[in-house]
Design brief:
This protein has about 180 residues and is an all-alpha fold. The protein has helices at about 5-15, 20-35, 45-55, 55-60, 70-75, 80-90, 95-100, 105-115, 125-140, 155-160, 165-175. Helix 1 (about 5-15) packs antiparallel against helix 6 (about 80-90) and helix 3 (about 45-55) crosses helix 7 (about 95-100).
């Protein structure tokens, strides 16, 4: 969860329009995910996490006051389109996993993204606008989260499931010495 927490927080904040609602959604999903993760193979964890996040009530509504100023061009898109764009730009999932999370074929959600982009002079989706959105997401992910908005500590079950530091250090060391393998 630690590797996806910042992405999930950005996704949730832009999706629901409120930093407070996003923090609550991410916190609830972390607790639920930690309790249920043992039921799924580890390879399914990313899609399950994002599916759980999308299932939170805060992220499924279009009502309420939008208090976030993050990713303004994306935040004003219709809910289904915003979800597709954010999953593509923020989640770090591949196309097959996004299709699994959304429960629809790639052509459907990719079509929503294409339709959301402004058209260039040739009538095609504007690649420069897409690159601009990518740059905004990259900048938002690189911006430090204010201390007051940080997520609560992860449950002990989640921390216990994380690999211990010596194993991570061994894996890093061996990656740099390919001839050992």
């Amino acid at each position: 969860l630690r590797g996806v927490e910042r992405r999930a927080r950005l996704f949730a904040e832009v999706q629901c329009g409120s930093a407070e609602a996003a923090a609550r959604a991410v916190s609830v999903v972390a607790r639920v995910f930690a309790g249920d993760a043992g039921r799924w193979p580890m390879a399914h964890w990313p899609a399950q996490y994002w599916r759980l996040l999308l299932a939170t009530p805060q992220l499924r509504t279009t009502e309420g006051t939008r208090t976030t100023s993050l990713l303004g061009a994306i935040a004003c898109l219709p809910l289904a389109t915003r979800t597709s764009v954010l999953l593509q730009l923020v989640s770090g999932l591949d196309d097959a996993a996004i299709s699994e999370v959304l429960g629809e074929p790639a052509a459907t959600w990719q079509g929503r993204i294409r339709d959301a982009l402004p058209a260039d002079l040739a009538g095609q989706p504007d690649v420069a606008a897409w690159r601009g959105w990518q740059a905004q997401v990259k900048q938002a992910l690189a911006t430090p989260v204010p201390v007051a908005a940080e997520a609560p500590a992860l449950p002990e079950a989640t921390l216990a499931a994380a690999p211990s530091a010596p194993h991570a250090a061994d894996a890093t060391r061996h990656r740099h010495v390919p001839w050992l393998w």
